[in-house]
């Protein structure tokens, strides 16, 4: 049971043009930096991406956008990416905005064998347009369908050869849920350990969800909105 | 004290001991600094953290420890981390006592618009639609008018909605307004303004509360 792959390039070598790809991360926090770089080097195109955000100009998924790899995107917030905004306003990229909690739950459902679910989120807004609604009890709900991808690109802090994963602080975000919702889940970890090292009680993603593990390197981890407290507040 | 600080300070006094609260990006984030002594509140950040502490001092920022505004924060004792699906389960599931959000428009039905201007802005709603659908109390914190003096408190929102009939309270630098089935009830007015001055800057008709108080 050794899922370790020699390099990020080897890990993504069989991802083809047109694939539907989930990418973990919130903003630039907890994104699979090495796997994104490898995907850009592969030079494929027409990808359908699912990710909460879309990086920024010059980093993260912004690099995929600049390489012209993305045909459509499903996410909840893309405000930090001017290039994307331009492409969408020109009608050159198909963007679907989904409320963040609905996005997370659609992915959870996709990994858990639930085809759809009712949620109060978005009721009475354009998000609910064209969707089935239903009254349950004294409240109305919108039917939202599960999301499942061909590939999930995940970033974890520590992982073992079985693919058991532990995350670090808010770099967890969408990574564990996306790990469950793809045919092929590829994980990059900052530190690879031998099976038995991670406390089984602390494992967040059990290895059953993971197909490939690669050790990441040279993390940049830019802080998107650097906000250092320069003076006391209140 | 400027208008935004006045709004933040006033809302902070509305937070009760033991509350779990989500503060939106921008103005609402300022509220944390004004929570009165003796009130224990746990701030949630929808990217996956409970027990969010103030920004770090100096250069100790950790890129793996950010709030939903992508700003570095610190850990308070008893904090916890979790994934996005768990984060929104606690939001959608009604576990947040209060959610404070900014707004572009809000109306007398309690409808909120705060995420898009068609043809001009492509950003996304982030977690706002889930927060307004799930929190027990939704408070809008915003400046009373746009920068060019256009009212933001309307009879009916004209921008795409974030949620329908979801807002409980509207707090601006001028006043506190409660959203009721009868309409918008003016309950507090800030120093330097009176009811007529607030109404003149508000499109929706305000009902003046019999218990109208100064907003401190």
From TrEMBL, chain A:
<dbReference type="InterPro" id="IPR004165">
    <property type="entry name" value="CoA_trans_fam_I"/>
</dbReference>
<keyword id="KW-0808">Transferase</keyword>
<protein>
    <submittedName>
        <fullName>Succinyl-CoA--3-ketoacid-CoA transferase</fullName>
    </submittedName>
</protein>
<dbReference type="InterPro" id="IPR012792">
    <property type="entry name" value="3-oxoacid_CoA-transf_A"/>
</dbReference>
<dbReference type="InterPro" id="IPR037171">
    <property type="entry name" value="NagB/RpiA_transferase-like"/>
</dbReference>
<dbReference type="Pfam" id="PF01144">
    <property type="entry name" value="CoA_trans"/>
</dbReference>
<dbReference type="GO" id="GO:0008410">
    <property type="term" value="F:CoA-transferase activity"/>
</dbReference>
Automatic annotation (TrEMBL), chain B:
<protein>
    <submittedName>
        <fullName>Succinyl-CoA--3-ketoacid-CoA transferase</fullName>
    </submittedName>
</protein>
<dbReference type="InterPro" id="IPR004165">
    <property type="entry name" value="CoA_trans_fam_I"/>
</dbReference>
<keyword id="KW-1133">Transmembrane helix</keyword>
<dbReference type="GO" id="GO:0008410">
    <property type="term" value="F:CoA-transferase activity"/>
</dbReference>
<dbReference type="InterPro" id="IPR012791">
    <property type="entry name" value="3-oxoacid_CoA-transf_B"/>
</dbReference>
<dbReference type="InterPro" id="IPR037171">
    <property type="entry name" value="NagB/RpiA_transferase-like"/>
</dbReference>
<comment type="similarity">
    <text>Belongs to the 3-oxoacid CoA-transferase subunit B family.</text>
</comment>
<keyword id="KW-0472">Membrane</keyword>
<dbReference type="Pfam" id="PF01144">
    <property type="entry name" value="CoA_trans"/>
</dbReference>
<keyword id="KW-0812">Transmembrane</keyword>
<feature type="transmembrane region" description="Helical">
    <location>
        <begin position="20"/>
        <end position="43"/>
    </location>
</feature>
<keyword id="KW-0808">Transferase</keyword>
């Amino acid at each position: 049971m050794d899922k370790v792959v020699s390099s990020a390039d080897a890990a993504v070598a069989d991802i083809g043009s047109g694939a539907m790809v989930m990418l973990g991360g919130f903003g630039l926090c907890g994104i699979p930096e090495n796997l994104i770089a490898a995907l850009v080097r592969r030079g494929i195109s027409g990808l359908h991406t699912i990710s909460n955000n879309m990086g920024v100009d010059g980093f993260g998924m912004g690099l995929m956008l600049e390489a012209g790899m993305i045909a459509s995107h499903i996410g909840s917030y893309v405000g930090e990416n001017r290039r994307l905004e331009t492409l969408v306003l020109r009608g050159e990229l198909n963007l679907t905005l989904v409320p963040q909690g609905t996005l997370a739950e659609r992915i959870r459902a996709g990994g858990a064998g639930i085809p759809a679910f009712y949620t109060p989120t978005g009721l009475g807004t354009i998000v609910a347009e064209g969707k089935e609604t239903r009254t349950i009890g004294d409240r109305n709900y919108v039917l939202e369908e599960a999301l499942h991808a061909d590939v999930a690109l995940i970033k974890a802090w520590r992982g073992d050869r079985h693919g058991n994963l532990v995350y670090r602080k808010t770099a967890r975000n969408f990574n564990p849920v996306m790990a469950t919702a793809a045919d092929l889940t590829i994980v990059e970890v900052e530190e690879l350990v031998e099976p038995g090292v991670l406390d089984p009680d602390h494992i967040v993603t059990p290895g059953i969800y993971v197909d490939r593990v690669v050790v990441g390197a040279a993390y940049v981890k830019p802080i998107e909105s650097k906000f250092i407290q320069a003076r006391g507040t209140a | 004290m400027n208008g935004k600080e006045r709004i933040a300070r006033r809302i902070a006094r509305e937070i009760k001991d033991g509350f779990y609260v989500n503060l939106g990006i921008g103005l609402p984030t300022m509220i944390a600094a004004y929570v009165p002594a003796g009130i224990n509140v746990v701030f949630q950040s929808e990217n996956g953290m409970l027990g969010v502490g103030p920004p770090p001092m100096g250069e100790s920022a950790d890129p793996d420890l950010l709030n939903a505004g992508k700003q570095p924060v610190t850990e308070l004792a008893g904090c916890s981390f979790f994934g996005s699906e768990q984060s929104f389960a606690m939001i959608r599931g009604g576990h947040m006592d209060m959610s404070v959000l900014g707004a572009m428009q809000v109306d007398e039905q309690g409808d909120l618009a705060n995420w898009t201007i068609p043809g001009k802005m492509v950003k996304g709603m982030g977690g706002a639609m889930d927060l307004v659908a799930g929190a027990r109390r939704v408070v809008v914190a915003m400046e009373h008018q746009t920068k060019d003096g256009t009212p933001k408190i309307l009879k009916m929102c004209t921008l795409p909605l974030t949620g329908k009939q979801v807002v409980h309270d509207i707090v601006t630098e001028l006043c506190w307004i409660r959203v009721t089935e009868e309409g918008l009830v003016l309950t507090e007015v800030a120093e330097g303004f009176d009811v007529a001055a607030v109404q003149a800057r508000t499109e929706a008709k305000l009902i003046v509360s019999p218990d109208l108080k100064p907003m401190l």
